[in-house]
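queue> pop job 88
queue> type: inverse folding (structure -> sequence)
queue> payload:
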């Protein structure tokens, strides 16, 4: 099992280099600060979910307590989601024992 196509936002949130090099321009908007704070707040849970996703052999392996594993609908019908916190979800596709197109989204 391996992870592929991880979104740059999710990758950056888990990268220690990102935190060490993070700087804010003086004109940064409050929205940027909110997203950055959310990423840091969820970093451990994101890492735990990605570990589980890496170990999963079938998509049902992601159905752990509190995950709220569910298939998405509409234009995202080929994706699954698990809950991180509040409205935040990890979305991914799962084929032949591998996770693809992994993203960290607030989709509500």
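queue> result:
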């Amino acid at each position: 099992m391996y992870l592929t196509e991880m979104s740059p936002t999710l990758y950056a949130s888990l990268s220690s280099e990102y935190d060490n090099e993070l700087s804010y321009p003086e004109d940064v908007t409050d929205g940027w600060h909110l997203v950055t704070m959310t990423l840091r707040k969820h970093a451990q849970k994101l890492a735990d979910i990605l570990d589980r996703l890496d170990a999963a052999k079938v998509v049902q392996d992601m159905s752990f307590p509190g995950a709220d594993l569910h298939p998405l609908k509409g234009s995202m019908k080929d994706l699954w989601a698990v809950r991180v916190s509040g409205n935040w979800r990890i979305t991914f596709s799962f084929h032949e024992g591998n996770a693809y197109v992994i993203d960290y989204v607030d989709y509500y």
